[in-house]
Amino acid sequence: MNVPGVRFRPLKALPALLNRSRATPRPCYVSKWLQSRGLQVSTAPPANAVPLRKHLKDEAKRKKADAKGLGGPRRDGAVTARLQKWELTVGIEVHAELNTACKLFSSATAASGDITAVPNSNVAAFDAALPGSQPQFQVATLLPALRAAIALGCDVQRKSGWDRKHYFHWDQPNGYQITQYYQPFAKDGTLKLTAEDGVPREDLLGAHSLSIGIKQIQMEQDTAKTSHHPPSNYHIDYNRSGHPLIEIITLPHIHSPQTAAAVVRKLQGLLKAIDACTTGMELGGLRADVNVSVRQRGTTGSLSYSGVAGLGQRTEIKNLSSFKAVEDAIVAERDRQISVLEAGGAIAGETRGWSLGSTETKRLRGKEGEVDYRYMPDADLPPLFIGNDLIDHLRSSLPELPDATMERVQREYGLTEKDARTIVALDNGERLEFMEATEELLQPRLPTNDSLELGRMAGNWVLHEIGGFLTANSLSWSDLKMYPIDLADIIAYLARGEITSRTAKQLLEYANDGSTSRGIGDLIHDLGLQRRPLSDDEYTELARTIMNENPGMVAAIKEKGQKGKIMWFVGQMMRRGEEETIEPEKAKEVVERILAD
Amino acid sequence: MALQCLPLRSALRCRPIPSLRRQTARFASTTPSPIDVAALLSKPTWSVASLLPSTSSSPSTSSTTITSKQLHHLLRLSALPPPSSPAEESSLLASLSQHLHFVDEIQNIDTTGVDPLQGLRDETKQGEREQELGLEALREALGREKVVGRYHRRIRRVRDAGKGEGREGVEEDMGDVMGMAGKQVGRFFVVEGGKKEGG
């Protein structure tokens, strides 16, 4: 059904006022997410996501270096001196796409992060801004938004309003974005960070945790997706237009780039744990804008932002799309501002952009005041009233937050801090669920071990052994075919000494190849895998027997230093010993030990 | 006679009558005496004509004058084309100054303690209670979530394949939005970007 007489007219070209820099193409991510403000995108994908364990190892290394007092690997004397003179202040605004069925003001499907959706298929009349279309608030979008506010400890306002933020862009069909400028729905929260989250030592100032204030959280609409097709064409997909977002605005309490990246990382983890925002930064579900200012230590600047006074002039860096980009952009902007101020210049309050791999931020827009958004209350929408019973219900049924989960896993299962952090973050909590189920099943099987030991065993197997198995076969967690009971059986047999660790690893493979539905016990019995592993003395005895029979070989190794012949001894031991009971690594160790004395 | 129409005024947006307000204050300080309604209503105290600038007063004497630069800024903000000729520009400036005179007259009203009206809604306590979104209103949405995991319990929204029920105001199918496209490539709208001067 064609609405007669209404044709979509491409909006007039951007006035110079909103001119964006289109000089260099900006590399984009593997997914099809594109920037929301019409910046160029090329198709070169530099996947910059760092794997979680590598990141944790890097953080541990950096912390160790900090502890030794050497500072980070990148810092040299000049930079440290500069940083001692100048203090950085950062405020972050995070936009997170909410996990909802419908869009914010229309009943069209909100397929967030769904890159397989047909373009322009989930567009309602209001999303395309057809004349006469009216917004209708979809109440289901309140759930993830309220959960986010509660998880961040905010005061949820009983009454909040909807305001229009006017600007013209082809990804904003209405000519305005509906947001909550005057009365956001949540205010005054906090986010706690510790050294393990990535906060450097200088920021903690001896305390255990750092508290970042959250100024407010507001709900707003997302814009459409544009992609640039050189030389001057833009393709627009309105599937994302009107998608609900929350904007989380922190107070300028952050004083280092690493803390800023840690804040964004922590927010992403938190929102994922409460099912409020399930697409991460790599898929474009989370975007960060940062405000950076510097001042000399000991002085106070003349400006104040959000009630924090004494700060210098700030610049805004928009559309940062990864944690590393956040950190690098802040470092580059801080250095640029310090250079300008040391040379005697003044910082202009402008909006800048950052592209991966660059060394300096680029100016996008002039002074802050130049864009006049003409905020006004939206007359089509009634104010939002949120009931206390709903807030209480959501607070009591809020899922366990990642911090609490990590602390519980360490306390109840004896895992190390690093392991706890990894297992909580992996596979949407599925691995942790598997581990907990395994530990519970281990209790009746190994009644003499205490629960911390069992927890450690289960954790080790789920993280390292199964993890290793998955990576070796290029599988993901969802491809795993075994059940917790299988793992519990394997660990129990191993712990009781009825199978060798090599057999245990083999059983892992058997349990996952899907060809058999037998339990572990049956498998062991049918395949005759029940082998008692040899003790140290038995190894030594066997080794000495073979050595006594071959004095020539022994002499060759001891006197002529022919180390290669050690493996010959190992081979002999394996042939001599009962089938499959000799482990070559252990045998080699024993032979070397004997030959050493 | 109820001259205490202050709360009513905000709801019904009465035409403000400055002279009457002064009389209200005077009346409040003395004992209420019978009001001569006929005398009150016989003399007009205000005219609609005051909302337009009188032809005798020249534009330069009005309190707010707009420069050509301001006009161009406003036209850019509104994505309107700049004036094509000096005659058009002066006519735009003249009509804009008339509008500003109107707005000045309106802004001269004393609105201390009066919240701006955003929409005609039920602002009584009962009305607000009815509009409140509580557990009942969200019950359906809460029903479309499930808890996964026995040990590590997490909430997950159930994703249905097609358009589910329970959406507010499911509108009639408006058909394919691509019908509105002036220019398209595949299933994308196409916009010609690039730097263009003016409109």
How would you explain this protein's 3D organization?
The complex is a heterodimer of chains A (597) and B (199). Chain A is α+β, with helices and mostly antiparallel strands and 597 residues long. Chain A folds into 3 domains: 89-385, no CATH class; 400-527, no CATH class; 536-596. Chain A has helices at residues 52-67, 77-85, 142-151, 201-204, 257-273, 323-342, 388-396, 402-413, 417-425, 430-445, 451-472, 484-495, 501-512, 520-527, 536-549, 551-560, 565-576, 584-596; strands at residues 86-97, 155-156, 159-160, 163-166, 176-179, 186-194, 209-221, 225-229, 233-237, 244-250, 286-296, 303-305, 308-311, 315-320, 350-353, 362-367, 376-377, 384-385. In chain A, the strands form 5 sheets. Chain A has a 9-stranded mixed β-sheet with strand order 2-6-7-10-1-11-14-15-16. In chain A, a hairpin with a 3-residue loop joins strand 8 (225-229) and strand 9. In chain A, helix 17 (565-576) crosses helix 18 (584-596). The radius of gyration of chain A is 30 Å and the shape is elongated. The N and C termini of chain A lie far apart (92 Å). Mean pLDDT of chain A is 85; it is low at 1-6 and 13-32. With 199 residues, chain B is mostly helical. Among the domains of chain B are: 1-30, no CATH class; 65-104. Chain B contains 7 helices and 4 strands; from the N terminus they run αααααααββββ. Chain B has helices at 6-12, 18-29, 37-42, 68-77, 86-107, 125-131, 135-143; strands at residues 145-148, 154-157, 184-185, 188-192. In chain B, the strands form 2 sheets. Chain B has a two-stranded antiparallel sheet. Chain B has a two-stranded antiparallel sheet with strand order 3-4. In chain B, strand 3 and strand 4 (188-192) form a beta hairpin. Chain B is flat and about 80 Å long. The model of chain B is unreliable at 1-9 (pLDDT under 50). At the A-B interface, strand 8, strand 9, strand 18, helix 7 and helix 10 of A face helix 7, strand 2 and strand 4 of B. Strand 9 (233-237) of chain A pairs antiparallel with strand 4 (188-192) of chain B, so a sheet runs across the interface. Chain A: Subunit of the heterotrimeric GatCAB amidotransferase (AdT) complex, composed of A, B and C subunits. Chain A: Allows the formation of correctly charged Gln-tRNA(Gln) through the transamidation of misacylated Glu-tRNA(Gln) in the mitochondria. The reaction takes place in the presence of glutamine and ATP through an activated gamma-phospho-Glu-tRNA(Gln). Chain A: Keywords: ATP-binding, Cytoplasm, Cytoskeleton, Ligase, Mitochondrion, Nucleotide-binding, Protein biosynthesis. Chain A: It catalyses: L-glutamyl-tRNA(Gln) + L-glutamine + ATP + H2O = L-glutaminyl-tRNA(Gln) + L-glutamate + ADP + phosphate + H(+). Chain A: Its EC number is 6.3.5.-. Chain B: This is Glutamyl-tRNA amidotransferase complex subunit Gta3 domain-containing protein.
